[in-house]
């Protein structure tokens, strides 16, 4: 799969030039969405670092490590766990062939304890370094010490979207090369949902509670996302679970678009609820309802991510889950473009275990 043209590509030449220096140290500042997390490690591989050893990309969160590894593997056209993989607590998806590995800062700290010289590692990239942690800070200090001692051959890079780099540049030394990639701006249109008025049963008409408005917005987004896929197993219009398929082409960007749309809807709903909870004069009941709604949406997000992680770990090409009050829908892509009965059973079992819903609340859909 071809890598999309992202702003980070504009500094490819500068980055490759910086990597030619002895004991290269690079400090990269690039805005969110510029492609640094998915673009820089492959550039290092293209520069030959992957042939000399493992390119370790340090992430502050396990979910980021998993998702980035999967995305980069797809971009490189390789199987996850082979040339590109990840290692987090209780999960290890790398092999002797791995050239790029996404790991958490805690995992790197453990490696430094077990292998103090990081044998077999050609580069360490600290991503999202503005999300400071004790493990990350200690690991950076230890890696820089290694580079000045027994590992003169190792490259070190620190990347961030928002970090004030002047102090960090001084800490990394005079040999540190500072690079900056610029983002792109696009027009943004704000659209407001028309208010839905309901009767309170006593002759008065008013908008529903804010948490119901938030739920409506999220549900509409889910309907839009799932309407582009094919129902394989689950309930449709009150019917029985079945396997009748209607071929629907979702396009190559379906999963990325679906996740982005889902996240935007969740963010908007949470903002609406937070505004209600923080509003001056709001009574305790409203504030509590809004706070509970935020917790529910956050729980949905975590469970969806876990389902997607477990499903793709089974070897499926991609997956996106959408969870609601009454059930969860899972859209899955396979290399063959079809889901067998065995596939449906396996994915349904994962969704049931992660959400607590019974089989009647699970919808499995195929993306063609």
Could you describe the 3D structure shown?
43% of the residues lie in helices and 18% in strands. It is an alpha/beta fold and 368 residues long. Strands 4-3-5-2-6-7-1-8 form an 8-stranded mixed β-sheet, with helices on both faces. The chain has a 4-stranded mixed β-sheet with strand order 11-14-13-12. Helix 2 packs across helix 4. The chain is globular, with a radius of gyration of 23 Å. The two termini are 17 Å apart. About 5% of the residues have low confidence.
Key features of this structure:
alpha/beta; four-stranded mixed sheet; 43% helix; eight-stranded mixed sheet; globular; 368 residues; single chain
Short characterization:
The chain has 368 residues and is of the alpha/beta class. Helices cover 43% and strands 18% of the residues.
Helices, strands, pairings?
Layout: H1 12-18, E1 25-29, H2 36-46, H3 49-52, E2 54-59, H4 62-76, E3 84-88, E4 91-93, E5 100-104, H5 105-114, E6 121-126, H6 134-148, E7 155-160, H7 165-172, E8 177-180, E9 198-199, E10 205-206, H8 210-226, E11 230-233, H9 254-278, H10 284-313, E12 318-323, E13 328-333, H11 341-355, E14 362-366
The strands making up the biggest β-sheet line up spatially as 4-3-5-2-6-7-1-8
The percent range for strand residues is 15-25%
- Main pleated sheet: 8 strands, mixed
Q: SSE order, as H and E?
A: HEHHEHEEEHEHEHEEEHEHHEEHE
Number of strands: 14
- Look at the structure and give the mean pLDDT: 82
Which range best describes the helical content: under 10%, 10-25%, 25-40%, 40-55%, 55-70% or over 70%? 40-55%
Which class of secondary structure composition applies to the elements?
A: alpha/beta
Rg, rounded, reads 23 Å
Global geometry: globular
Distance between the termini: 17 Å
């Amino acid at each position: 799969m071809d890598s999309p043209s992202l702003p980070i590509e504009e500094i490819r030449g500068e980055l490759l030039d910086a990597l030619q220096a002895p004991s290269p140290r690079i400090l990269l500042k690039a805005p969110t969405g510029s492609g640094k997390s998915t673009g820089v490690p492959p550039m290092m591989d293209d520069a030959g670092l992957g042939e000399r050893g493992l390119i370790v990309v340090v992430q502050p969160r396990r979910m980021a490590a998993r998702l980035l590894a999967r995305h980069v593997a797809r971009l490189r056209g390789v199987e996850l766990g082979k040339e590109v993989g990840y290692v987090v607590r209780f999960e290890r998806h790398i092999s002797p062939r791995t050239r790029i590995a996404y790991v958490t800062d805690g995992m790197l700290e453990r490696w430094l304890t077990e292998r103090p010289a990081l044998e077999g590692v050609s580069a360490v990239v600290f991503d999202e370094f503005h999300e400071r942690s004790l493990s990350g800070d200690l690991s950076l200090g230890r890696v820089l010490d290694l580079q000045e001692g027994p590992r003169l051959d190792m490259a070190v890079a620190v990347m961030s979207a928002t970090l004030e780099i002047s102090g960090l540049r001084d800490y990394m030394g005079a040999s540190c090369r500072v690079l900056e990639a610029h983002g792109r701006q696009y027009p943004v249109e704000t659209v407001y949902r028309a208010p839905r008025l309901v009767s309170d049963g006593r002759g008065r008409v008013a908008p529903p509670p804010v948490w119901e408005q938030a739920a409506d917005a999220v549900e509409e987004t889910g309907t839009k996302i799932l309407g582009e896929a094919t129902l394989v197993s689950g309930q449709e219009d009150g019917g029985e679970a079945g396997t009748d398929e209607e071929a629907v082409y979702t396009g190559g960007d379906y999963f990325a678009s679906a996740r982005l749309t889902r996240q935007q809807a969740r963010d908007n709903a949470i903002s609406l609820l937070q505004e209600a909870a923080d509003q001056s004069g709001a009574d305790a009941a409203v504030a509590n309802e809004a706070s509970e709604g935020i917790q529910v949406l956050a729980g949905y997000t975590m469970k969806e991510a876990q389902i997607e992680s477990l499903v793709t770990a089974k070897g499926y090409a991609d997956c996106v889950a959408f969870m609601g009050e009454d059930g969860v829908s899972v859209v899955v892509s396979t290399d063959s473009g079809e889901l067998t009965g065995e596939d449906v059973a396996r994915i349904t079992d994962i969704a049931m275990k992660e959400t607590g819903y019974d089989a009647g609340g699970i919808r499995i859909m195929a993306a063609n």
